[in-house]
Design brief:
The chain is α/β, with parallel strands linked by helices.
């Protein structure tokens, strides 16, 4: 972007171009590019005088369920950005759906349509036809439309994302699981796979009594769970997982039960201070954490 895209945009601006649409590679998550692009439009930046107006994500609802609920490596689709890109389609699609200001949902599959609707933030716009993607939607009728990267990041950050829900007529459901208590490290290690059931995807955060300052992240795509960290808590820690699925309602009920059983009990919380800094056996789950 620094060596090619930005100089090209600056040149277009200098030659009188008033509006442009920048189409990113399919597997390039907008969160990795758009906030940086907005920074470059500041008065001292190379794109001073320009503005980023809207982030749009286009999705085919006809294939969305498979892309989200099955673990399909990008490399199998020829979409990887580098040889060591191990991400899957659901991982990219879930973040991109959450970050976008506008969702362009094309296709006819009702299950896929309902599924992406459950992942679309309530403060964003959905359009279902290309002719609805007007210049007003992209640039604003009065030219004052501006993309807000901080609001977009909040929509997808594990510690601030929300359960938006959506239609349930075709079997899609969303669980909003929340507690101020941490997961018990031992029960997390033993039962984590039970939270990654077939036919579900999940996002969110949790905390551990052994790592009380760390925002631990949770993501499920196509029966594959991944954990990581997202900095330090700003305020009180919380455990908050959002699970969306098309699986049998019994699976939904089991996930709710497993979540509750993985939490520290009130009796265990009474001795939580003794856990701080103790070896929880999860160092391999959080490599590089200081």
């Amino acid at each position: 972007m620094r060596e090619a895209v930005v100089p090209a945009l600056a040149l277009m601006r200098a030659e009188g171009c008033e509006r442009a649409v920048l189409a990113l590679p399919v597997a390039l998550e907008p969160i990795a590019v758009v906030p940086a692009l907005v920074d470059l439009t500041q008065p001292d930046g190379p794109l001073a005088g320009c503005a980023v107006t809207t982030s749009v994500h286009a999705v085919s609802v006809d294939v969305a369920a498979g892309d989200l609920l099955r673990h399909t490596p990008l490399a199998e689709r020829g979409l990887e950005l580098a040889e060591d890109d191990t991400r899957c389609t659901g991982e990219v699609l879930m973040v991109s759906l959450g970050y976008a200001d506008v969702l362009l949902a094309l296709g006819d599959d009702p299950l896929g349509s309902d599924l992406v609707e459950h992942l679309r933030p309530l403060d964003t716009l959905r359009v279902d036809h290309l002719d609805e993607l007007t210049s007003d939607v992209l640039f604003g009728s009065a030219g004052g439309l501006r993309h807000d990267p901080e609001a977009a990041v909040r929509r997808v950050h594990p510690a601030s994302t929300a359960a938006w829900g959506g239609p349930t007529a075709h079997g899609v459901w969303t669980l909003d699981l929340r507690s101020d208590r941490p997961f018990h490290p031992g029960r997390l290690a033993e039962r984590a796979t039970e939270l990654a059931a077939d036919g579900t995807l999940a996002r969110g955060c949790f905390w551990l009594p052994t790592r009380p300052d760390t925002v631990c992240t949770w993501e499920v795509n196509g029966d594959t769970a991944s954990v990581g960290t997202a900095g330090r808590w700003d305020g009180e820690p919380a455990t908050h997982l959002i699970v969306t699925g098309t699986a049998d309602p019994d699976v939904r009920d089991r996930i709710r039960t497993v979540f509750a059983r993985m939490l520290m009990t009130e009796a265990e919380m009474a001795g939580a201070l003794a856990w701080v800094g103790a070896d929880d056996g999860l160092d391999e789950w959080f490599p590089g954490e200081e």
